[in-house]
Amino acid sequence: MGKVGISLKIMPESAEISLDAILEKIKAKYHVEDAQQKPFAFGLNSLDILILTEDKGGTDKIEDFINSIDGVNSLDIVSVSVI
Description:
- By secondary structure, the chain is of the alpha+beta class.
- It has two helices and four strands; from the N terminus they run E-H-E-E-H-E.
- It has one domain: Ribosomal protein S6/Translation elongation factor EF1B (Alpha-Beta Plaits).
- The chain has a four-stranded antiparallel sheet, covered by helices on one side.
């Protein structure tokens, strides 16, 4: 088993939601290698992150955790790469 890089795009429920607060909750549980806030539309920013984790078969636990964070509207898996 090796390491896996999981690239995600996280959308908040509104422009008033703190992406920094969402990021801190994710960092408390997972190793975030990179994080960027990018303009999306109408004053709304997305949070694009790269999580490094052990290859343990899937992204379901990560997705479930992030979706359970208050203020997260949706997330998309952009890519999954073995490192």
